[in-house]
Amino acid sequence: MKARPVNLLGRVYLGLVLVFLYVPILVMAAMSFNSSQFYMLPIDWSFDWYVKLAHNDRLLEAARNSILVALVTTVIASVLGTAASIAFFRYDFRFKKVLQAALFPPIAIPWLITGTAMLLFFFWSGIGRGLHAMILGHVALALPYVIIVVSARIKGFDPDLEAAARSLGASPWQVIRHVTLPYLAPGFIAGALFAFAVSFDQFVISYFLSVPGVSTLPVEIYTAIKKGFTPEINAISTIVIVFSITLLVIVSRFYRFGGDR
Amino acid sequence: MAVSDTTTAPIRRHRPSNARSILGLTGPAYLWLVITILLPLAAMFYFSFLSDVPLPGRDWQVTLSNYTAFFQQDFYRTLMLRSLRLGFEVALWCFVIGFPCAYVLAKTIKGRWREALFLMVIIPFWSNALIRVFSWTMVLRGNGILERFLDWLIPGFGSLNLMFTYEAVVIGLVHSYLPYMILTCYISLSTIDDDLIDAARSMGASRLTVLRRIILPLSMPGIVAGAVLIFVPVIGSFMEPRILGGREGTFLGTVIEDQFTSVFNWPLGAALSFILLACVMVIFAVFQPILRRAS
C-alpha cells in the first residue's frame, strides 16, 4: 500500500506500452474507413474501400485460398498432433526425447530458411508449388503447437480412468472414444484453433511456395504493398486482424498462454 | 497417479504391440516433418555446394564458390554484421521496454486485471505479423500520424523522415517482438517470491539494490530466453526491412530472399541460408543451459 505512487507510475507505463502495441493497428483500421485516398485528416468516414474490396476478385480469391489452406492444415495437424501427444503420454520409449526435441526446429529456425528450403526441395523433387505445397509446409509449422498444447492438457489425465473402462469391458477403441477423447476435447480444440491461426497468418512459407495467380491473403497483401498499395489493403487487413484477434481470444478460453497464472 | 504409473508402465513397455502403437501414433506426424523440414534442409545443404540448379539441361558441378564468396567479399561480411547488429539492437530495445512492463504485470497488478492485461499484451504477437508491420507505414510516413501528432504537440516540429530508414525497421521489429520479451520476463518474474523482496527491503536495501541484487539475477533466464527468441528471427527477417526500410533495408535476410525470388541464384541463396542457420545454431547451443532453465 505504501508504494501507491510507484504503482500508479507502473500502470501509466503499462498503458503506454499498450498504446505502442495497438496504435498502429487502430490507425490502419481507422484509415480503412477514410474515403480519402491520401489519408487526409480529419477522417472522412465511409465504407468506400470495403465496397471496392467486395469487387476485388484477386483479393477475394486469395482470401478463399487462405481459408481453404487453413482448414485443411487444421484438420491434418490436429489429428496427427493429437495422435503423437497420446503416444508421448501413454508410452515410454527410447526415442521419445529425440522425437520431442525434433519439434523444436520448425518453430525455432527462421521461416526464411525453412521457406526457401521447402521451395528448393519441392521444386526439385517434383512436388511443385501451389496450395498443396503450402498445406505441406503449414502443417509442419502447426504440428509442434498442436502437440505442445494437447500434451499440456493430457498431462492432467488419470490413466486409471482408462484402466477402469477396460476392466468394465470396453474395447481399446471404446476407451479412446468414450474416455480419452472427451477428456482431451478442450486441448484438442485449442490445438486446432492454434493450427488455424498459425496457417491463416502464415506469410513467409506461403510466399516462397506460391505461384503467380495462386496465393494466399498475406502473400497478396505483401505483393500489393510492394507495388504501391491501394487503400483496399487497409480494409482487408483490418478484417484479417479483427478475425485473427477474435480467434485468439477464443483460444485463450481453452488454453492459458504462458502457463498457470 | 504415481502408484498407477509404477504398476502399469513396466507391463506396457514389454508388450510387443506397443511398438506398433507408438509407430502408428507418432509415425504420420514425424513422416510429415521429415518430408517438410528434414529433407528440404538436406536438399538445401546439397544445393549450397553446386554451381547451378541440378536440373536436366543445366550445366552444374560441385563447388565451394558459394561459401568462398561469402568469406572473401566485404559485401557479405558487412551484411552479416548489419544483420547481427539489427538483432542485437532489437533484442536490447525489447528488454528496455518490455522488462519494466513485465515487472508491473507480475508484481503490482493482481487478479482478473492481470489476466486481461496479460492477454492484451500477448494477442498482437499471435496476429498477422505482416499486417502489423504494414500498419507502421501509416504512422511513420512523411506527414503521417506520428509527424502530425508531434506537430500538434509542439507546433512547428517539422518532419522526422523516419520512413525507409534503419530506425523504422528497428521500430517495426521491436513492435513485432516486444510481446515475446514481456512473456518470458513475466514468467520468470512471477516465480520470484515476494517475501524475498520484502525481506531485503525490511533490512534496508534500497529499491535499486533490490533490483540489481535480487530481481535482475533471478529473472536472468527469462531475459536471456526472450533475447534469444527475438534475436534469431530478427537476423532472418526480410519482410520487415523491405516494407519499412526501403533502400535502407538491405540485410542478410533480404539478400537471401533476392536469390530465390528475383536473382534466381538458388545455390548462393542456399549457402547464405546455411550460414544464417549456422549462426542460429551457435546461438542456441551457447544459450542452451539458460534456455532449458527458462522453460
Describe, in short, the structure shown.
By secondary structure, chain A is mostly helical. Chain A has 12 helices and no strands.
Characterization of this structure:
The complex is a heterodimer of chains A (261) and B (295). Chain A has 261 residues and is mainly alpha-helical. Chain A has one domain (48-254): MetI-like (MetI-like fold). Helix content of chain A is 76%, strand content 0%. Chain A has twelve helices and no strands. In chain A, helix 3 (57-90) runs antiparallel to helix 9 and helix 7 (131-154) packs across helix 9. The longest helix of chain A is centred in the N-terminal third of the chain and has 34 residues, at 57-90. The model of chain A has no long low-confidence stretch (mean pLDDT 85). The longest helix of chain B has 35 residues, at 74-108. Chain B has helices spanning 2-14, 16-47, 65-72, 74-108, 111-126, 129-140, 145-153, 166-189, 194-202, 207-218, 220-235, 239-245, 252-261, 266-294. Chain B has one domain: Orthogonal Bundle (MetI-like fold). In chain B, helix 9 (194-202) packs antiparallel against helix 10 (207-218), helix 11 runs antiparallel to helix 14 and helix 13 (252-261) crosses helix 14 (266-294). Chain B is an all-alpha fold. Chain B is built from 14 helices and no strands. Residues 1-14 of chain B have low confidence and may be disordered. The interface between A and B is large, with 88 and 96 residues. Chain A: The chain crosses the membrane at residues 12-33, 67-89, 101-124, 130-154, 175-198, 235-255. Chain A: One of its GO terms (biological process) is transmembrane transport. Chain A: It is a multi-pass membrane protein. Chain A: It is found in: Cell membrane. Chain A: It holds the Pfam family BPD_transp_1.
